[in-house]
């Protein structure tokens, strides 16, 4: 298992992102891949790709999304509370913080399409974009050929104009200076942290294998506005700090230190 180090934190603070290879081990990755396949087989995912009009579902291209994750998988419910995750996020955005959002994108082989350029802060509008971070986790090897993540280092210092993405039924997009982008190729089990202000996108999957990525978003207390925590929104557990109950308050069960056991269960049952 690879842990977060000082150079990761320094890059995050200066460039708004960092990548850590080998963050999860082979068994953990296998368990995640098993859950992704279950989501697919049970029809829990939906295609958010449209026919360039933002409304008509595409029949030629596929960008499968599932949101949220916590209520569909006890493994993924436990993952944000795994010590390796809490340690990394605490180092990057500070304590206390909450789990703001969790989702999955899956690109089928050959027809899978990416997500257009955008900044998460165009949705959330927190005062300091470095106080919110996504943790993008590669369930499969992420390469140029299968449309891996691209980021623009330092773009959290700018706010690009966004508009409705005509290729998605709900996303927005922007047009940043793509010549400044970095393509992040990482093996399965790696994570990429990028703050809420970093412009990022993913490409199309031209390979013969499906590729999935999980994204968990974490938000520091000082930027957790009341409207982000309203009762009619998805449950958002405090992961650290005095308000944290390990998910007991939000989920009805304390999931701290349960990730390893959940991995064992998934691998043993295939469920």
The backbone outline, from C-alpha atoms, is globular
Question: What's the gyration radius in Å?
Answer: 17 Å
**Count of DSSP H/I helices:** 7
Number of E-state strands: 12
Give a quick account of the main beta sheet: strands, pairing sense, barrel closure. 7 strands, antiparallel
Poorly predicted parts: none
Helix content: 10-25%
Question: Structural class of the secondary elements?
Answer: alpha+beta
Bin the strand percentage. 15-25%
Mean pLDDT: 95
The termini sit apart by 24 Å
Strand arrangement within the widest β-sheet reads 1-10-5-12-4-3-2
Helix and strand string, N-terminal first?
HEHEEHHEHEEEEEEEEHH
Describe what this molecule looks like in 3D.
The protein is an alpha+beta fold and 271 residues long. The chain has helices spanning 6-15, 26-41, 74-78, 83-93, 121-124, 248-251, 259-269, and strands spanning 17-20, 46-47, 64-66, 97-107, 132-138, 149-151, 163-164, 172-173, 182-183, 191-195, 200-202, 211-220. It has a seven-stranded antiparallel β-sheet with strand order 1-10-5-12-4-3-2. A hairpin with a 7-residue loop joins strand 7 and strand 8 (172-173). Helix 2 crosses helix 7.
Question: Strands, helices and their partners?
Answer:
Elements (H helix, E strand, L loop, with lengths): L5 H10 L1 E4 L5 H16 L4 E2 L16 E3 L7 H5 L4 H11 L3 E11 L13 H4 L7 E7 L10 E3 L11 E2 L7 E2 L8 E2 L7 E5 L4 E3 L8 E10 L27 H4 L7 H11 L2
Antiparallel strand pairs: 1-10, 2-3, 3-4, 4-12, 5-10, 5-12, 6-9, 6-11, 7-8
Helix pairs in contact: 2-7
């Amino acid at each position: 298992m690879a842990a977060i180090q000082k150079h990761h934190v320094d890059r995050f603070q200066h460039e708004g992102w960092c990548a850590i290879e080998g963050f999860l081990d082979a068994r953990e990755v296998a368990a995640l891949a098993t859950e992704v396949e279950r989501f697919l087989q049970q029809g829990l995912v939906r295609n958010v790709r449209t026919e360039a009009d933002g409304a008509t579902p595409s029949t030629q291209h596929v960008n499968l999304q599932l949101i949220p994750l916590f209520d569909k998988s006890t493994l993924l419910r436990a993952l944000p509370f795994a010590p390796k995750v809490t340690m990394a996020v605490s180092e990057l955005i500070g304590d206390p913080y909450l789990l703001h959002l969790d989702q999955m994108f899956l690109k089928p082989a050959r027809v899978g399409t990416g997500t257009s350029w955008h900044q998460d802060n165009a949705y959330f509008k927190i005062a300091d974009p470095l106080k919110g971070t996504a943790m993008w986790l590669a369930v499969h090897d992420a390469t140029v050929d299968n449309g891996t993540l691209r980021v623009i280092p330092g773009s959290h210092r700018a706010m690009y104009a966004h508009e409705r993405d005509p290729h998605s039924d709900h996303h927005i997009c922007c047009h940043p200076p793509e010549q400044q982008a970095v393509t992040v190729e990482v093996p399965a089990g790696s994570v990429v942290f990028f703050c809420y202000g970093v412009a990022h996108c993913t490409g199309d999957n031209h390979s013969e294998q499906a590729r999935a990525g999980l994204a968990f978003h974490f938000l520091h207390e000082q930027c957790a506005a009341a409207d982000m925590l309203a009762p009619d929104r998805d449950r958002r557990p405090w992961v650290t700090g005095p308000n944290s109950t390990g998910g007991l308050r939000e989920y009805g069960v304390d999931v701290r230190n349960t990730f390893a056991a959940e991995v064992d269960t998934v691998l043993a049952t295939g469920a």
